[in-house]
Write a structure and sequence with these properties.
Elements (H helix, E strand, L loop, with lengths): L1 H17 L4 E5 L5 E3 L14 E5 L6 E5 L2 E2 L9 E3 L5 E3 L8 E6 L6 E16 L2 E9 L12 E4 L5 E2 L2 E2 L2 E6 L2 E7 L8 E6 L5 E7 L6 H42 L11 E6 L15 E6 L6
Parallel strand pairs: 1-9
Antiparallel strand pairs: 2-7, 3-4, 3-8, 4-5, 6-7, 8-9, 9-10, 10-15, 11-12, 11-16, 13-14, 14-15, 16-17, 18-19
C-alpha cells in the first residue's frame, strides 16, 4: 500500500503545482470577462503565452499562440491578450463556458473555469410561465449539488419544492420554476448559485411575462366592447347627418324662384248660363274667364 500511497501523493502535488492559480469565475451573458494567466507576467514574456480552450464534448482548441490571437478562431473578433498575458473575452455567451488553460515557458500553468448563468422563460399554458435557470460550466468539475441553484421571490423567500402557485425542480445544473399567473401582480423572481457554504456566487432577476390567462381575457373583452361602442357612435352620427340632409332637401323643394312665377298661375273658367230668362227677351251668353295671380312675397 505504501508505493500506491506515494504515487497518489506525487500526483496530487504535481497537479497542484502545474495548476497554480486555478479560478472559478461566474458571469452572465453579455459581460466582458478577463481570464488571469497565473501570478502575472511582464510584457516581453507574453510572446511565449498560449491559451487553450475546451468545451465538452468538443476537442481542445488553441485560442492564443506565441502571444497572438489565432485569427481562424470563431471568437477571434472578441478575444484580446492584455499586457499581463490575461485573456479578455468581450460579450460572452453560454458557448464561452468551459475550461481555459494559460501556459507559458518557465511559468506554472494556470487553469480558469468560466461558469455562465442564464435565465429564460417558456410558457406551457396561458395561465402559467416556466423559468429555466441554467449554469453552463465545464463538466469535469463536480456536478451541481442539490439546492445549489435557488429561487427566491421578491420578498426574499426561498421557493423549494411545491408551494402556493409555484413548483421548483432541479436536474443537475438546471433549475425549473413554474409559477401561476396572478391577476394584478408583476412579481420578480431571483435565481442564485450558491456554494457549499451557501455563499452566493452569482444571481439573476427575472420578471415573467404571461401571454394569456384572466388578464388576457379581460383585455380581449375590453377591446371588443370598445370597438362596438365606436361602431354605434359612428352609426348614430351617420343617421343624424342623413336626417339633416333629407330635411334640407325638403325645404329647398318648397322654395320657388322668380322664374317659376308663371307656373304659379291658376286659371278658372266660369260659364254663366241664364236658362230662366224671360221668353221674350233673349240674353246673350258670355263666357267669362277668371285668373288668379300669386304674387311673390318680398
Amino acid at each position: 500500500m505504501t508505493p500506491l500511497l506515494l504515487i497518489f501523493t506525487f500526483v496530487y502535488h504535481f497537479e497542484a503545482g502545474i495548476c497554480e492559480g486555478l479560478n472559478n469565475l461566474y458571469h452572465r451573458p453579455g459581460h466582458d470577462v478577463t481570464l488571469p494567466c497565473g501570478s502575472g507576467s511582464s510584457p516581453h514574456t507574453c510572446s511565449s503565452t498560449t491559451w487553450f480552450f475546451n468545451r465538452e464534448p468538443f476537442p481542445t482548441i488553441i485560442e492564443v499562440a506565441k502571444g497572438n490571437v489565432i485569427q481562424s478562431s470563431d471568437r477571434a473578433a472578441r478575444l484580446r491578450l492584455n499586457t499581463d498575458c490575461s485573456l479578455l473575452i468581450n460579450s460572452i455567451t453560454a458557448e464561452d463556458a468551459g475550461r481555459y488553460v494559460c501556459r507559458q515557458s518557465g511559468q506554472s500553468e494556470a487553469r480558469v473555469y468560466l461558469n455562465i448563468l442564464t435565465v429564460s422563460q417558456s410558457s406551457h399554458r396561458d395561465d402559467e410561465a416556466t423559468l429555466n435557470c441554467s449554469l453552463w460550466r465545464y463538466k469535469e468539475l463536480s456536478p451541481c449539488k442539490k439546492n445549489s441553484i435557488l429561487w427566491l421571490d421578491e420578498t426574499g423567500t426561498k421557493l423549494v419544492g411545491e408551494g402556493d402557485g409555484y413548483n421548483v425542480i432541479q436536474t443537475k445544473c438546471v433549475s425549473v420554476l413554474t409559477v401561476k399567473s396572478q391577476r394584478g401582480s408583476n412579481r420578480r423572481y431571483t435565481c442564485q448559485i450558491v456554494d457549499e457554504d451557501n455563499k452566493v456566487q452569482i444571481q439573476a432577476d427575472y420578471t415573467p411575462v404571461f401571454t394569456g390567462g384572466t388578464d388576457h381575457l379581460y383585455i380581449i373583452i375590453g377591446s371588443v366592447v370598445g370597438v362596438v361602442v365606436v361602431v354605434v357612435v359612428i352609426t348614430a352620427v351617420l343617421i343624424k347627418c342623413r336626417r339633416r340632409a333629407t330635411a334640407t332637401e325638403g325645404v329647398q323643394k318648397a322654395t320657388h324662384t322668380p322664374d317659376e312665377a308663371e307656373s304659379s298661375l291658376t286659371y278658372v273658367t266660369v260659364n254663366h248660363d241664364h236658362q230662366r230668362a224671360p221668353p221674350k227677351k233673349k240674353v246673350k251668353e258670355e263666357n267669362v274667364t277668371y285668373s288668379t295671380i300669386k304674387t311673390q312675397e318680398k
